[in-house]
Amino acid sequence: MNVLLAGSHGQVGRHATRILAASDHDVRGMVRDESQTPEIEDLGAEPVVADLTEDVSHAVEGVDAVIFAAGSGGEDVWGVDRDGAIVLVDAAEAADADRFVMLSSINADQPANSPEALREYLRAKAEADEYLRESDLTYTIVRPGPLTNEGGTGRIRTGAGLDRADVEIPREDVARTLVAALGTESTYGETFELAAGDQSIEAALGSPLSE
Asked: Cα angle at 41 between 73 and 86, to 5 degrees?
């Protein structure tokens, strides 16, 4: 597939860009800042400069699939984490892309059960997720627990209602899961939580809501 990765320069995005570049997919790494394009090229992707708060139609031209791994870092949760995702969903539909994999967050479905500082972000993510679900795109929504910078293990667990006291996961494994989900039909139309675990990514994605 020709894949657009939004948030290619982010912490998860850099891992996902590298993984996609080493795969059979063609990857276009979307960044907001022109100065970030050399790093995207070094990771093996074709860089494209686009701002999620503006028109992004040029970024999705000719793509088959989108991975949304962008985020505002808490600076503009409504403008980027929600509305930016919505803009990209609309652009993907208009460009006749079919596949859309969304990086969301655990507790997006129940922000009241999270620390106060995270609740607005989680509400924004929940609204973006719901917009994607109501689109005509073949979607997958991945909701990892707290992210760490430890090296990936390639072992995860997925499900709904995971134990929120034990759901940390390395960013690298989140990235590998996003990329693996692209062509895994058992994830189509599914929303699932993600944490470090004991199963291979391939095995866990075979039944993403099994736990």
From this structure: 40
- Give the pairing type, strands 147-148 and 99-103: unpaired
131 is an active site residue: no
pLDDT of residue 114: 87
Contact 40, 138 (CB under 8 A): no
The answer to whether the predicted template modeling score (pTM) of the entire model surpasses 0.90 is yes
For residue 202, what are the β-bridge partners?
Answer: none
User: What is the Cα–Cα distance from 57 to 77, expressed in whole angstroms?
Assistant: 21
Query: Burial, 112: exposed, middle or buried (Cβ in 10 Å; 0-12, 13-18, 19+)?
Result: exposed
Instruction: List, for residues 105-143, the tens digit of each pLDDT value.
Output: 999 999 988 889 999 999 999 999 999 999 999 999 999
Give the per-residue pLDDT at 95: 98
Handedness of CA 89, 98, 175, 161 (dihedral sign): positive
* DSSP codes, the chain: -EEEEETTTSHHHHHHHHHHHTSSSEEEEEES-GGGHHHHHHTT-EEEE--TTS--GGGGTT-SEEEE----TTS-IIIIIIHHHHHHHHHHHHTT--EEEEE--TTTT-GGGS-HHHHHHHHHHHHHHHHHHTSSSEEEEEEE-SEE-SPP-SEEEEESS--TTS--EEHHHHHHHHHHHTT-GGGTTEEEEEEE-SEEHHHHHHSTT--
Q: Which two tokens stand for residue 118?
A: 């995270």
